Amino acid sequence: MTHPDLDVAPEIADALAQGRPVVALESTIIAHGMPYPGNVVTARALEHVIRNEAALPATIAVLGGRLKVGLDEGELEHVAQSPNMAKASVRDLPVLIAGKHDGATTVASTMRIAAMAGIRVFATGGIGGVHRGVEATADVSADLTELALSPVAIVSAGAKAILDLPRTLEMLETLSVPVIGYQCDEFPAFYSRSSGLRVPARADSPEEIAAILAARWRLSNAGGALIANPIPSADEIPAEKIEAQIAVALQDAKAQGIAGKEATPFLLARIRDLTKGESQRANVALALNNAQLGARIARSFSTSAK
Ligand code: PSU
Ligand code: MN
Asked: How much is the pTM?
């Protein structure tokens, strides 16, 4: 597991060596997805939920050009507060490594680094995907292409509602990524449980998901899987309600010429303002829910692999 650019925290390295469950967490959601100090509170809460489920959290970030798997208190605080945390997708990693810079890892780069460390399960809020208006912008998140490359299962509340969900599902099919609805038949839409789109497969227990993952990686180690876990009913924002705010945020982005990697952070922040924080509360709730399921899947996967 030694790699010249990778630093795996000793506790996590031990757990992985012994086949104990570990769940990766991303850092873009901390540095660019939520404001301080709520972001660091959420980051700690995500780690706590995973430990409570008898698994180890491994928050991933780039610090001083090192690919860090597992952050200590001070490092987590730094990621949450520093103005110098670049939003780092996979293509940004070489530049950050060579320049010894800091970077907050997206779903795509977190997957890549998790795979390098031997972590198979990763919990996040919602993955990136095909953006609305893709015909004009060609904006498709590298989260999708990475799902076709790295052997990591992502637990996500579907894909972010700001996206074009039908096209995102089409692209996942093209990339041969298994999409499994957890206790649901519909692809969840991040803030809401329903999207009107069917998931191609359903599983009702972490054990069932672990068995699917084991089979997936017997076929090939190239690529991961998407576990779609709907936001808990008590925390959801109905699709009709949030859709109006999303439309306003998308219009504002267009008017201000926001595009590329700035698009997602801008839209999430704008929706947070428009909903007076309601979207943020939903985002935290669904991320915690995903961390819990991620830990259960990792536990089940590690026992079945023994
Ligand atoms: N989900 C959230 N908040 C976020 C993101 C996802 O709840 O901030 C981030 C993830 O890091 C994801 C990224 O990988 O947004 C997608 O950005 P882009 O569309 O530029 O690929
Ligand atoms: Mn993009």
From this structure: 0.97
